[in-house]
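Note to self: keep these together.
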Amino acid sequence: MFRSILAILLGFVVAGIVTLLIQIPGYVLYAPPQGFDWNDAEALRAYAATLPPGAFLIVLLSWFAGAFCGAWLAARIARRAPLAHALAIGVIQMAAGLYNLLTLPHPMWFWVAGLAAFPVAAVAAAALNRPKVAPAPVAV
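Structure:
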């Protein structure tokens, strides 16, 4: 039980860090205007509405990579039930992504791709952590 909780906590932290690190170049490439107030919700929505597809692709990549890395780590640390632990991270990350989708304007293609990224990343990460099965001996 302790191992599962630790796995999910560390997976969540790693997912957030990876997501942030990948989004940093997007903040540089698509910088907001000078003096932009990140705490002004209306200004943030207006800024997000002007972003080109490239900015959304960076966010999509960050969501997938963050969920993948966090899910992989959670499945690896837990050692058992890799899919369950990986999906736990995918669900947590999806909740954060859904909040983002609901609060800021996004194109429809991003809604579809963004919400699909989390479960796909979690399942892929779990697949890399499947228990190794020894090959059956060959009868001669």
